[in-house]
Amino acid sequence: MIVIVDYGMGNLRSVQKGFEKVGFDARVTDDPAVVAQADKLVLPGVGAFRDCMDQLQRGGFVEPILRHVESGRPFLGICLGLQLLFTESEEFGHHKGLDIIPGRVVRFPGDIHNQGQVLKVPHMGWNQIDIRRTSPIFTGLKSGESVYFVHSYYVVPEDESVVAATADYGRTFCAAIWRDNVMATQFHPEKSQRVGLKILKNFGDL
């Protein structure tokens, strides 16, 4: 059973439809008991880090998520669902995350440049990824594939060995992580057409 956590912040239906397109049933739930029973767990997210953490805590999702990760069952974080895995974020102050992956979440500076042009923040649209490690969700994909991003913040892991892919936006940043059963992307697979559907299928096949 693939379970998508519904804590009130995320484009859940598009993620669910993505899995359905590649042949997998995925259940959207706001019930922590269902989250605890998931074979594979997906944590999407859009919005502010602090608000999302508050929603996870109020909804009773933190403990089931931590237990799922500790059990070794597959976990996929998407966009803010990647950032929430980290120790803390500097978005609107300093806020604690799930602390599954040591590191922090930082903002793109407002004066980043590329070939003399000032880049807009948020980083929004298609960008290529450089696959550094072949995470299970990247099976059959190669560096140079384009995926869809929408974000103003990015993760900085303490241990760079967890970085599975990077992208460039005025600087090189972490676009995906992989550690054991935990996989997560800063980009949106559900919006990334062929490449994104391949990622969702790879996760479903685990």
Please provide a written account of the structure:
The chain has helices spanning 12-21, 32-36, 49-58, 62-71, 80-83, 193-205; strands at residues 2-5, 26-29, 40-43, 75-78, 86-89, 95-96, 101-107, 113-114, 117-118, 123-128, 130-131, 146-151, 153-157, 163-168, 172-179, 182-185. The mean pLDDT is 95. The strands form four sheets. It has an eight-stranded mixed beta sheet, sandwiched between helices. Strands 6-5-7-13 form a four-stranded mixed beta sheet, covered by helices on one side. The protein has six helices and 16 strands. It has one domain: Rossmann fold, CATH 3.40.50. 42% of the residues are buried. The chain is of the alpha/beta class and 206 residues long.
